[in-house]
Amino acid sequence: MFRPIESTTASRAVTVQLQGKAITAREGDTLAIALMNAGVFAFRQTPVSGQPRAPLCLMGTCFDCLIEVDGQQNVQACMVEVREGMQLRLQVGARRAEAKT
Amino acid sequence: MTHDLVIIGAGPAGMSAALTAASIGMKTVLLDEQPRAGGQIYRNVTAVDPKVATLLGPDYTHGRTLADRLQLSGVEVHYGAMVWDVARDLTVSVQHDGKSFQLRAPQLIAATGAMERASPMPGWTLPGVLNAGAAQIALKSAGAVPSGPVLLVGGGPLLLLVACQLLEAGATVAGIVETSPDSNRGAAMNHVMGAISTPTYLAKGLRMIWRLRKAGVPWFTQATQLRIDGRERVEGVSFITNGQQRHIDCSVVLLHHGVVPNTQISRLMRVAHTWDRNQLAWRPNVDEWGETSLAGFRIAGDGASITGAIAAEASGEIAAIGAAHALQRINSSERGQRATRARTALAKQLRIRPFLEALYRPPQWINVPADETIVCRCEEVTAGRVREMARLGCQGPNQTKFFSRCGMGPCQGRMCGLAVTQVLANELGKLPDQVGAYHIRTPLKPIPLASLASMSSKTTCGT
To answer: Which fold has domain B129-257+355-359?
Structure first.
């Protein structure tokens, strides 16, 4: 959906895992930007009707970029910067409580 | 008490308030949810790629001066700090790194800025639809631009600025679709003297228009009946302009109908608000020192009224001077003297606002959308459903929330609040002031229970 413009300075590559698939981002990118640069269009499917959604505001107000990060649900992807090895899952439908064993 | 002054938000107003407070010797703490100073207007200005900085120009890099001064000032700053509650006694609850803590001072300045007005229209929930400000944030924070053809829809200086910046950055601008009705021009002419007396802004505007024209960007005006087309993602936009039906293919749509004060904290604090008939938004009532109807609680910058970044810097300074006076650090005459420069700067910035507000007043169909348009994105509630609630007897947004879940999702009414108030006012034949706004409750953003549990017992017991 988005792409980085050619920069004058080199930035360190950071790899995150989206449902088992490696996505390479640049240090300092938010998760939302990293996923949009990687061509991810639908960040989640809504709890109400299952419609696809992606970021609208990129500044923490719309809550449309919610994603699961390292097991924590409903994280605002636009408010978190990429960290090496992050495990991401796209949220499909309503959230549910999972029994911890 | 942990400090003399707590400031929320490290944009122009917050940074300037912190610098002023520090210069008067107040023990100040500044909190911001982002990892770096700047707010949205100067987002990432301390770490931005030099090429992007050049592209964004001096209006953006000006923020670097403030951020650098802040760093040298020794003010206690917490980044990545999300404020999720502010009590009426001004106790601030903050989450940082998954844990919560509390701060308290006799003076509090909320400098939480603006957000873009929602632009509800058919298809606006499709992936690939973003606010114009979001594209600018992508550019500032990550040097990223839309990868396919991008269409800009709406009205306002930011729409044109973003179009220019995207062109400069090498994006493909498929067109600009302006929605401002023709009647805006006549209304704006009543305020043209204010614009002429601020020639730098006028010149900037004309330069942007010239650049876009020169680049041959297709430009449509007075567009109505907009619909964003696509199944799983944006494929194009349909609209009527000059009596003709048009369709433009694109993969990203950027919406913009001006910015409005972010009133989540001021609503949570239950201070008095007024409906601004020119800005078509709520603004908290503040006095000339930024103080709200609650003693000690001040609001500076766009969170009080939309006036722009330079004005925000001045109003931050004025609020901090007001706080210092309230704490008896300076006397009344010193308060007046210290604020002279900021007041002159502020007055200068305010001159062009009536012209811009009239010229880019959003069309009625954005404020009061058609029945089939989703207004509450979280709970997928349409404008028609809100009207139905009004016909069933609901008198305000809180009742429609109970019955329809409109405004009850994770964004807590940030996106739909203004539209719901206006739809209800229209349907009930009342003024927005009579209809009111959503009650905002803690937590301001969802937090995990573990974060709450981590708060030390010493602070949760209110000692």
So the answer is: FAD/NAD(P)-binding domain (3.50.50)
Cβ separation B141–A33 shorter than 8 A: yes
* B137 contact residues in A (CB cutoff 8 A): 58-59
B54 at A interface, C-beta within 8 A? no
Q: Does domain B368-435 have CATH number 2.60.40.10?
A: no
Contacts of B334 (CB under 8 A, 6+ apart): B325
Which class is B5-116+260-330 in CATH? alpha beta
Q: Report the alpha-carbon angle A66-A69-A75, nearest 5.
A: 30
User: What is the spatial order of strands in the sheet that A72-76 belongs to?
Assistant: A21-26, A13-18, A87-89, A66-69, A72-76
> What are the tokens at B180?
């401002």
Task: Give the DSSP H/E element, type plus range, for residue B245.
Answer: strand B244-249
pLDDT in tens, B290-340: 999 999 999 999 999 999 999 999 999 999 999 999 999 999 999 999 999
Is B146:B251 a contact under the CB 8 Å cutoff? yes
Backbone angles phi, psi at B107, to 5 degrees: -130, 140
CB contact under 8 Å between A61 and B414, yes or no, is: yes
Residue B214's pLDDT band, with cuts at 50, 70 and 90, is: very high
Q: Where in chain B is the domain with CATH 3.50.50.60?
A: 5-116+260-330, 129-257+355-359
Inform me whether the pLDDT recorded for A98 exceeds 80. no
What local confidence, expressed as pLDDT, does residue B463 receive?
35
Band of residue B279 on the pLDDT scale cut at 50, 70, 90:
very high
CA B77/CA B87 separation, integer angstroms: 21
B252: nearest CA partner in chain A: A1
Query: Which domains can be identified in chain A, with CATH numbers?
Result: 13-92 (3.10.20.440)
Sign of the C-alpha dihedral computed for residues B426, B430, B431 and B436 taken in this order: negative
In this structure, of A31-35, B351-355, B455-459, the range with the lowest mean pLDDT score is B455-459
Distance CA B294, CA A43 (A): 41
**pLDDT value, residue A9:** 75
Looking at residue B462, what is its pLDDT?
A: 39
Looking at residue B34, its pLDDT comes to 97
- Yes or no: say if B399 and B386 are a contact pair by the CB < 8 Å rule: no
Question: Whose structure tokens read 């969170």?
Answer: B303
How many CB atoms are located within 10 Å of the residue B158 CB? Answer: 21
Sign of CA dihedral B334, B338, B343, B346: negative
pLDDT in tens, B33-64: 999 999 999 999 999 999 999 999 999 999 99
A58 interface with B at CB cutoff 8 Å:
yes
